[in-house]
Amino acid sequence: METKDYLKDIQDIKQMMSQSTRFISLSGLSGVLAGIYCLIGAWFTYKIIYFDTTSMGSYKDLVISDEAVVQLFSIAASVIVLSLITGIVLSYRKAAKSQEKFWNTASKRLVINFAIPLVSGGIFILFLIEKEVLSLVAPLTLLFYGLACVNASKYTLGDVRYLGITMILLGLLSTWFLGYGLLFWALGFGICHIVYGAVMYYKYDRNY
Predict the structure, then answer these.
(1) How far apart are CA 168 and CA 122, in angstroms?
(2) Neighbours of 86 (CB within 10 A)
(3) Looking at residue 191, what is its pLDDT?
(4) Within the chain, which residues score under 70 in pLDDT?
(5) How far is CA 53 from the centre of its chain?
(6) Given this model, what pLDDT does residue 129 score?
(7) Helix and strand tally (H, E) in the chain?
(8) Is 16 exposed, middle or buried (0-12, 13-18, 19+ CB in 10 A)?
(9) Crossing angle of helices 193-200/28-49, nearest 10°?
C-alpha cells in the first residue's frame, strides 16, 4: 500500500509540474471546428475566385476585382474570428471542468510564443501583398503558422508540434506547386486541423 501511495504522490507531483509549465486544456474539438470553418471559407473563396470556369487551374488568367478582394478578406477575417472564439470558449470550458486556471503563466507563454512568428509572418505577407507578390502568400501563411505551432508547442500539448511540422512541410510543398495555394490552404488549415483536432480530442478530451 505504501508503494502505491508513493507512486500516486509522484504522479500528482508530475501533473502539478506539467500544469505549471504547459497549458494542457487546449481543446481538440476546437481544432476540428476550426478545420470545418476553413473548408467552408475555402469553398466560398473558390466560388469567388473561379467565377469563370474556363480559367480554372490557371492563376495567370484570373482577374480579381476590388469587390472580390474585399469579399476574400471578409471570409478570411470571419474564419479567423470564429476559430479564435471557438478555441477560447471550448478551452475555457475544458479548463473549468478540470479545475485548471485558464489564464495562467503557461497560457500566457503559449500565446506569446505563438504570436511572435505568426504576427511577424502576417506583417511580412502584408508587405508582399502590397508589392503584388501574391504567388508566395499561400506557402508563407502555412510556413509561418507551422513555425508558430512548433514554437508554442513546448507550452501546450505535444501534438501541436507535429501539426506545426506538417504545416511547414505543406508550405514548402506549396512553394514548389505555385498556383495551387487554395488547395494547400484547404488541405493544411482545413483537413490537417480536423485530423489533428480529432486525434487530440480522442486522446485528451473524452473525459471532459
Answers:
(1) 15
(2) 19
(3) 93
(4) 1-25, 51-66, 206-208
(5) 30
(6) 81
(7) 8, 0
(8) exposed
(9) 170
Assigned C-alpha cell, 56: 480554372
Continuous segment of H or E residues that includes residue 5: helix 2-21
pTM: 0.80
User: Which residue is associated with the grid cell 508563407?
Assistant: 140
What residues have CB less than 8 Å from 144, skipping those under 6 apart?
A: 117, 118, 120, 121, 122, 124, 125
pLDDT in tens, 82-132: 988 998 888 888 878 877 777 778 788 888 999 999 999 999 988 988 887
Angle, helices 137-152 vs 105-130, to 10°: value is 170
CA-based torsion, 160, 163, 165, 168: positive or negative: negative
Cell of 36: 470545418
